[in-house]
Amino acid sequence: MRIGLYPGTFDPITLGHIDIIRRASALVDKLVIGVAINRDKGPLFSLEERVAMIEAECAKLSEQTGTEIVAHPFENLLIDCARDVGAQIIVRGLRAVADFEYDFQMGGMNRALDSSVETVFLMAEARHQAIASKLVKEIARLGGDVSNFVTPLVEEELSKRLNG
């Protein structure tokens, strides 16, 4: 069984993330969405809320693609998380050159730590390349329309969190 790991903070999950998850599902039998705890980033949503949104969105994708998709919180090294879930592939979604430079270095370091785990880079579709969770949160915080960047479920969760 080919297992992939797609790590991130997913605060919140966006249409760009969902695009990468959909496309990564075609490459593996099981896709683990590694939800980074990352206390340093000060996420808007709790770990439990992020996992719940991912599970809700990925249930639909799993049915459509036939690939098992599960959320897995982690706080250790990415390569250790890959080992923990039995992943042979780490999936990284790229939006811009800046993403590539960081992820290229991280991929090289992970390869040095465990040469049995490959890093695969997937380019975001053009219509999703500008989407970043940080920007989505800022737009929502200032009362803007985020419906082109997130699902209705996530839009509702953002509204509840930011507007009480």
Would you give an account of this structure?
By secondary structure, the protein is an alpha/beta fold. Helix content is 46%, strand content 20%. It is built from six helices and five strands, in the order βαβαβαβαβαα. It has helices at residues 15-25, 47-65, 78-85, 97-113, 133-141, 152-163; strands at residues 3-8, 30-36, 68-74, 89-94, 118-123.
Summary, kept brief:
This protein has about 160 residues and is an alpha/beta fold. The protein has 6 helices and 5 strands, in the order E-H-E-H-E-H-E-H-E-H-H.
Task: Provide key terms for this protein.
single chain; 164 residues; alpha/beta; five-stranded parallel β-sheet; 46% helix; globular
Low-pLDDT segments, ≥5 res: none
Gyration radius, in Å: 15 Å
Largest sheet: 5 strands, parallel
- Major β-sheet strand ordering: 3-2-1-4-5
Order of helices and strands: EHEHEHEHEHH
What would the principal axes of the Cα set say about the shape?
globular
Helical content band: 40-55%
Distance between the termini: 44 Å
What percentage of the residues does DSSP assign to strands (E)? 15-25%
